[in-house]
Amino acid sequence: xxxxxxxxxxxxxxxxxxxxxxxxxxxxxxxxxxxxxxxxxxxxxxxxxxxxxxxxxxxxxxxxxxxxxxxxxxxxxxxxxxxxxxxxxxxxxxxxxxxxxxxxxxxxxxxxxxxxxxxxxxxxxxxxxxxxxxxxxxxxxxxxxxxxxxxxxxxxxxxxxxxxxxxxxxxxxxxxxxxxxxxxxxxxxxxxxxxxxxxxxxxxxxxxxxxxxxxxxxxxxxxxxxxxxxxxxxxxxxxxxxxxxxxxxxxxxxxxxxxxxxxxxxxxxxxxxxxxxxxxxxxxxxxxxxxxxxxxxxxxxx
Length: 302
Fold this sequence. Notes:
Layout: H1 2-25, H2 32-41, H3 47-58, H4 63-91, H5 108-113, E1 116-122, E2 143-150, E3 153-155, E4 168-174, H6 178-190, E5 211-214, E6 226-227, E7 230-238, E8 245-249, E9 254-257, E10 261-265, H7 267-280, H8 285-300
Antiparallel strand pairs: 1-4, 2-3, 2-4, 5-10, 6-7, 7-8, 8-9, 9-10
Helix pairs in contact: 1-2, 1-4, 3-4, 7-8
């Protein structure tokens, strides 16, 4: 009779554990299908087996039989519920072909302590950002794509790097901008991507005077609203490492804005001035590359 009572208790444990897990989900925000799935998974673990060793150690009568029954119940529960977990999840519509979130390549604890954060995002199939360039993602200045993982290999990104479906983007961002960058991921999937096409600029019949003066009075050299009182029609290029930009003005001229200098004039005159700056370069490859990029942008608009 004692063994039969123990067997009955073990069966009750087998039935009660999933019910207990299901009851625990009632206080959560899960829907009914998710609650049923979690309830079926039960509250498995080695704890029942560990507890069943107490009667054996204490020499309680029937302790060995109790241990054997608990061990059998736990193993049987694991096999039955574990083997049926995936088919049940499929039946309830809780499976997906969506890839799991990529594992972060950087240790984010120390980065958070310094005020930063790391966001990992995978370009899903048919994402609007696939086939576009890194510079088209529209990231704020305080965020950058630190590395791209493609086919299991790390790719150091550049602004001209073309993105592909399945790419894992690991983005380093300041902590207060995390929500803003995460909101951008919806646009990367659904679009539109990139800056809007700037409106056509009015034609000028008069000659365009070229001027260079010290900077310092521009509201935001990387994205000014006006230069010399002339509204900015479009920001054509901007540097990540410095507050510098190439802009198109509403009167048809172009301007280079920075904290130290402001150059304004026609396309050809400004391109010639930028070529001379690129030739000097000051031994800085990044500086030379910036001026060459500006020259190319001005020539392309001809």
